[in-house]
Each structure stands twice: as structure tokens, then as C-alpha cells.
Design goal:
2 domains, single chain, about 250 residues, four-stranded antiparallel beta sheet, three-stranded antiparallel beta sheet
Length: about 250
Amino acid sequence: MQEKRAEEYGRCATVLDVDFQVPGAAAIFDQALTNGLAAIVAHTWQGEEIEKRKNGDHRLKAASQLLKVIAERCDEAHEGIYAVPDAAVESKITVDVAALSDALEQTQRVRHARGVGEIDKRHVVALLDLDGHSCLGQVSEEQRESDWVKHQIQDRYERLRAQDYLELIGELEADRRIALAADHRPAHPDELADGMDVTDCPVCGRETLAVSGIDDFGAGYGPGVCLVCSYVRSSDAAHDLALNHMLARHMDD
């Protein structure tokens, strides 16, 4: 679990390190912060990352709660900044609880439609500072230049473009295009074997993504174009989706 948290932190934090204004930055930030803090708290004070609910179930604490654990258990090095011990290297890292708490306020505004909120460079720097802990150490120059990060950013901008296009054409035109999707369904079983099919679009949510091939793992995430919102799932994006699917299956086995 710790390894998975660290990897998820690294993947999300690296995307923001390259482009902190990428579409969906608020959700990416929350995911990175929660996983990074959970890894640090679990490593330093095992069990403090979990809360027991009234029904007896246990669940991971929210990022805001994990920041409170750090603030309560650590000495304040500077105003709003706390020194977290790292036993593996017999040193401490500083966690900017004030900046990260402000970042959470910004992301919650965006994610829950409570007005305008924005992640800025100060927030991202505080997020990346967590990587100095020995249980993380996931952000590197190699990762910043990785194809995965580039594909993630490109696909997020493509999704934003398709969402804008969907709003432009309106519901009536979108409904008209849905009817045309039936013409793209495979007429012969051999076409299914080649990956030719119509599946759900991640942007408009309609079953109108005309798939034109098979991903590298045969997981059902082939490249294609949505016949309604025009979203284009590139072969690179399809590969990344399929790879994540296979890794998740492997983790569950």
C-alpha cells in the first residue's frame, strides 16, 4: 500500500510540476497530496493515517485531517511550517502546512462549485517538498521528461477542447449525432476482433466513441474519436489507460 501511495503521489505531482495549470489541476493536486501525506503519516506514526467511522469501518483520513496530524505531532520550524522526522535518514523534512491547507481550500472551491479557486506555484512547491521524505522520493528529472507525463497533459487539454466544443454545438446537435453512432457499430464479428466498436466517451459520457483499433494489452481502451463531442483518444492515451487497467488488475490479484 505504501508503495502504491508513493507512486500515485509521484505521478500526479510530476504532472503539476510540469504544468500546474493543466485542466483538472485541482483533482490532480488533491490526489497527489492525499497519497503523499498518507504515506508520510503512515511511515512516521503507523495507524494515524486511518480513522474509525461510527459504523466500525476504517477509512483513510482526508488530506486536511492528515495535515492536522502533522501539526499536532511536530514542532513548528517557522510560522505554518512543521518539521517532520524521517527515521530512515535520521533527519527531518519541512512540511508547509499553511500553504497546503490554503491549496486544499482552493481545490475544494473548484471541485464543489464554491466559487473561483486556483492552484499557484507556491502550492505546488509545498507539494513537491513532500518528496524529500524517504518514503516518497518519486519526482525526478527523468519523470518530468517521461512520455507518460506528456501524454497525460496532452490528453487533458484534448478533453478540455472537446468539452468546449460540446457546449458550442448544444444538446440538440449532440442528440442528432448520437443517432449516427449506430452506423459505426461493427457489422461483422471480425471487426470486433480488430477493435472496431463504439464505446463510452470520457468527455460527454455518451456511447459514441468510435474505436479504431486495439490497445497494446487488449484491455478495451483502443484509440478513437467521439462522434458527438469530437474528443480524440490518441494511441498514446489508449496505451496509458490500458496499462493502468492492467496494473490495477495485478494489484488486486
